[in-house]
Amino acid sequence: MSGHAHAPATATGRHRRRLVVVLCLTAGVVVVQVVGGLLSGSLALLADAGHMLLDATGVGIALLAAALATRPATDARTFGLLRAEILAALANAVLLAALGVWILVEAVRRWSDPPEVATGLMLAVAAVGALTNLVSLLLLREGQAESLNVRGAYLEVLGDLLGSVAVLAAGVVIATTGYRRADVLASAAIGLFVLPRAWSLLRSVLDVLLEATPKGIDLDAVRRHILGVPGVVGVHDLHAWTITSGMPVLSAHVVVDEECIADGRTGEVLDALGACLSEHFDTDHCTFQVEPIGHGEHEAVGHR
After folding, report:
1. Residues 217-260: pLDDT tens digits?
2. Is the domain covering 219-298 a CATH 1.10.10.10 domain?
3. Cβ distance 174 to 157 under 8 Å?
4. Structural domain boundaries of the chain?
5. CATH 3.30.450.20 fits 13-209, yes or no
6. Judging by beta carbons within 10 Å of its beta carbon (0-12, 13-18, 19+), is residue 89 exposed, middle or buried?
7. Whole-angstrom Cα distance, residue 123 to residue 6?
8. Which of 81, 88, 119, 195 has its CA 20 to 30 A from that of 13?
């Protein structure tokens, strides 16, 4: 028996307008950085442009996934397309990792013979990128705590901001000392920053796809709260997982005493369980199977 209906909107969907603004800002800067990188000869600018292009792609995927996630559930897909957001975050993480590898390979290739760089243009374009990234970062700051897709976009924009700072620093070094490898070093720094963040996002996505217990939910604590409800004498087959960002789900077999069943109070027990888990664990979609004492002996063994 389910105590609550499905959530009407996903975490990504609640921040859709801000994602659209970030998408437009990012796409505009990509064009500026590609042109600036080609004209100035800066690998760091091209690396930052590539990173921002993936940002734009990732945000576009997130927006598409958020739209798909609003489609109603059907008998064939009882949760609708909510997992589309997680698949979008997976694609984003893989693209981010591929970009990090390409940047490092290109940096190694250029190390022995770094090209000339037009530092004036390099610095101007990097400054535009840094300012735009800062604005985008502020727009996504709130939503990144709620949605994996928004978090992915936030991490990418954060990487872009630091990348723009690295490009600015490299431009200053080249302009004042003539040390051209500063551009290569800045590129490598961007690549080294990208890779661990891609892994962080990928690990969070895999936790959802592998139906790991959501962070912040202690199943031992959940079990204690369930056992604390009057009439409940046991709980087993307790599971918690995540459908999509901001939507944890929990199910359990709850054993109640004979008096509770005889008095017809199982409905009260279900209401108390739903209210308890919603209040203490922020889990609104809970499914409970109410059982009499001894019923568990007829079930398959090996469940916790």
Report:
1. 899 999 999 999 998 999 999 999 988 777 889 999 999 998 88
2. no
3. no
4. 13-209, 219-298
5. no
6. buried
7. 50
8. 195
